[in-house]
Amino acid sequence: MSKNQMKMTSFFASKKAGGVITKKAPGAEMIGKRIKVYWAGDKAWYEGEVRAYEKGRHEVAYDDGDVEVVDLGAEKYQVLTTTEDPEPAAKKARLEVEKTPAPRKRRIVGDETDSRRKSFDSSAFRTRYKMTPTCKMTPTSRDAPAAVVSSGSSRSSPVEMDASQLEASGDAKVGVFPAGAHLHDVDPAYAFLTSERRDAKGRRKGETGFDPKTLQIPPKFLNETKSEVQKQWWQIKATHADCVLFFKIGRFYELYHDDADVGVKEAGLVYMKGEQAHSGFPEPAYGKYAEMLLARGYKVARVEQTETPERQKERVSRAAKRGRKLDKAEKSLRREICSLTTPGTRLYTYLDDVEATVTNDGPLLAVVRDGTRYGACSLDAPTGSFSVAEFDDDRQRTRLRTLVGEKMPVELVLPAMDAELEDLVSRAARRARPGQPVLVDSLGPDDSWDVETTLNALSEIMPRASKTTGNHHRTARWPPVLREAVDGGANLAIRALGAVAWCLRRALVDVELLSMGNFDAYVPPGCEEEEEESPAAELSSDEADLVRGVLALAREDAARRADGDGRDDDHQTLAAAAAASSRRLTLDATTLKHLEVLQSAAADGKTGSLWTLINHTKTAGGARRLKGWLARPLVVASDIRARAAAVSELVDRGDDAEDVRSRLAKIPDLERLLQQLHTLGSARRAPLPPDQDDDDDDDDDHNLETRHPDSRAVLFDAVKLNGKKVQQLCQALDGLRRCEAAIDVARDRFDGGDEGGVLRRCVRAFPSISEHLEQFETGFDLERAKREGVLEARRGADDAYDAAKDDEAASREALDKWLASKKTELRCPGATYVQTARDRYAVKLPADVVSRSTFKLPKGWVQKSKSQKFVSFSVPQVLDLVADLERAEKRAQAAKVDQLRSLFAAFDSRRSRWDLAVKCVATLDALLSLAHVSRRDGFCKPQILDDDSAPPVLRVTNGAHPCLETSSHITQVVGNDLSLGGSDDPAVLLLSGPNMGGKSTLLRHVCVSTILAQAGCFVRADEFVLTPVDRVFTRLGASDRILDGQSTFMVELLETATILDRATSRSLCILDELGRGTATFDGAAIAHSVVNHLATNLPGCRALFATHYHDLVKSWADHPNVQLGHMDCIVESDTKVAFLYKLVPGISPRSFGINVARMARLPAAVLDLAKQKSAEFEAACNPTPHQL
């Protein structure tokens, strides 16, 4: 238990004892003495013993079991003259119900106006249970969910525990109860929170329609709750039962009951004293503890005090003056949920401890369906990026699984009434994130928005239709993707977006994220369409992406020049013309997993993956862009060649490339910073001026709804937190300056001549930002704002503030001139101003001047005070001038209060400019990363043939899997030659060879090299020639899906069915040992039929088929579309085989399975019998003519 926590713990009073008030500064001589300490807050003495002394502070162990570290020199205390050992707690305890709340200590700390212990002490509102060694209690097990995968929670059945066992198993500190023994565990009155848990409509968990977000609290329980703070907690918990409440009392966030259990178990907090489960931490530690719970899959609701005691009193007073009678709840200090953070909606704000953040990022994904048609919406909350999709799917749900595998969501939002969909998507998500928690939110009918509700919600946030273009449709100025979804009737996609929007509204960040307008369309595998020729046809995909950014900036500038009514439609037309083909190489979920593209099967999920191989980016934006390139490589030959040309130039000019790359190293995550500053600049987060309250308009509800609760939050470290806000702006400014510097170097090194290309487009598309940055760098004293948390605008930065300050100065000058004129008029050079209780500028004259017989009191002057030396007066003219001054000061103060938010809003108004700058640098960083890996020995630039080259070709010379050389246990990699398709070679390779001979590695190598080549990277080979592939199919490994009710063989056949159904003449397929999961003859028959389909029905489809069915291989020896090959080996003796890992033509003589069994150290007797049986089986299957 921390000292702060010990200091604030509630206590029970002890008997008074006589003594002498000590005045001498105490020291080590106090150790072992009995004393009593006076607590001013309670106006009571508390007894205890001094246990230790260090550096001027004493440790006092009070008789009630609490321990406090205190400076006795600053406290009022007495040394007890008669020592009276307190009666042991175990002897005094007995089972009884005590109706009177126990007396308790209270410390007043700084300006903390409401003791966190007093306002929420269990003894203050319920009967307190005392235990005896003989009493029996029935605490429930406190096994909190280790990896939360559902928004609900549950406890195991009760078990009995003797109080003596409880004492032995509890905390060593008296009065601190162990887990499972607190009130909500053992008191039947709290059963509604555990065993009798129901939602707001009385439904139990497991019943149809159960809503885990709500909690039904018995009215009698609430009525018996005496403290209004306690009622606030229960009322919030009733609507947020799926969240852990960080409930602010004073300077501390408190956790109670089952929330306290979670805090202790998952975040390492400690229980406070008392039978009520209770833990907490100080305000500055919010980010640390929120991160710990979010990383484990919990939701965290931050409840803040949203008015100061002064404003509370003013509010109550105003209501009384208006004749409005407030009840006790309305009179209490307001508290509201100011943020509700989930793993999928976290924004990494100024409150978060970003340095302590656990890497568990992933999007929020919502899915709805109608039959086999699906709508989906994913959100990357930290960057404010939405992606929407609607598509039909096959029986294996290939596209849906691919979507989940590619997005790797950390949180799912699914319809509550569709158990099949929830089961499918949640299991796919867990496969994509092995070992990591995935939160599942189930939305019931009351929480699910239909299309019209979603569109109405978006209409409140999105830009309204332009008044000058004549297009008044409500979606006219929405992001193009949303407009097309509405116009095209993509209702499922809109409903999925509505599910995400509902979650964001509950999390209080819907306006902040949706208003960014950052939407794109996710195109599932096989849904791509050939696009018509456009004026941008000469642009590569990467160049067109940058051009869209340039056009977005032009649109923003045009809108600004036209006061918000720019010719939006014209620019949208230009953007559409620059749109690149949406066609990409399709990698479905099965392929991503089999080839370990984004993550590997290693324990860390990284070692051996293709992503780890190529990711050498220096910026977060570059990493996101590169990962997108890898998950969805290019498919159009001209696009691939354009990116590869940029990479090749960077490879050839390695020193220049590494120089530019090194300059990207210190650029922060600008995409996140831009989203954070957009949120901080939101108009609804504008703070209230000091003299204004939410109910000034006598319309409390309206003001509370339109302003974000965070605008009202009372944060005790506000100065520090404001400094962190400014720090985010400074980081963004510095990061953009670094972007500009890196681009300047790149421009100097790579922008010579008139040739185009992706690399030069990155440099030339970079916007002019220096002048815009300078406005923020010079307009405000940012360094002072970081230190003091207060922004002071320099002259010219804020017109409203400047005008108010000018009027303020003019009013003061007028007051000075008036006083100077009166000094002359009254012949009194000693006249001056003085501030009194009622008059800010009272005129003070010397008493001897006023007492002159010639002194005539000017008209309207009223004497306010008098002393022997001076007399002060209230003067009407001065009062008028002071009124002008105060009006100017009020305007300046109002401008300054919102100045920080206004600064963020001004920065955000140039977001299209910043976005384009970040996009250019991210593209450059991704290219530099590909060049860095491509510079390795043994890598070559792939030769990409035109799409219309017939038939398709895949040719590799001395190629190898690029990830093998990164393995610590592989000393030498053997290269292989392979040629599929074209005019000279069959497109299908039937591959045989010994177990562990390298067949599977060869299959993976071909696919991985194809993915790298189409991503624009060099490949591990001496030569690699490729006609672009439209889709990579894989059928590898042996695994079942127990939860799906699918055997290993069934999984094999489902994957094979997808290949036969979806493959085209442009596809690449690999199948490894198909048919081994069933009887030999059935397996061989199926394998034969699949090879026949590939060879005859899909001419040009490049395929590698590995098998141990040697008769199958022999049967295709003369087919013109099939070539035979095997992995070579040397049989050194009857018992030893040396694998050469080299692909050679022909059929492998045997599979050498028994030799591999010997390597695995099977017993010799088993091996001998296996060898005998193998010979018998072979003889039976291949009889000689004599046997026939």
TrEMBL record:
Residues 84-120, 134-158, 681-709 are annotated as: Disordered. GO terms for molecular function: ATP binding; ATP-dependent DNA damage sensor activity; mismatched DNA binding. InterPro entries: DNA_mismatch_repair_MutS-lik_N, DNA_mismatch_repair_MutS/MSH, DNA_mismatch_repair_MutS_C, DNA_mismatch_repair_MutS_core, DNA_mismatch_repair_MutS_N, DNA_mismatch_repair_MutS_sf, DNA_mmatch_repair_MutS_con_dom, MutS. Residues 1067-1083 form the DNA mismatch repair proteins mutS family domain. Keywords: ATP-binding, DNA damage, DNA repair, DNA-binding, Nucleotide-binding. The keyword Translocase does not apply. Belongs to the DNA mismatch repair MutS family. It comes from Chrysophaeum taylorii. Residues 691-702 have a biased composition (Acidic residues). Residues 144-158 have a biased composition (Low complexity). SUPFAM superfamilies: DNA repair protein MutS, domain I, DNA repair protein MutS, domain II, DNA repair protein MutS, domain III, P-loop containing nucleoside triphosphate hydrolases, Tudor/PWWP/MBT. The keyword Electron transport does not apply. It comes from the Eukaryota. Component of the post-replicative DNA mismatch repair system (MMR). GO terms for cellular component: MutSalpha complex. This is DNA mismatch repair protein. One of its GO terms (biological process) is mismatch repair.
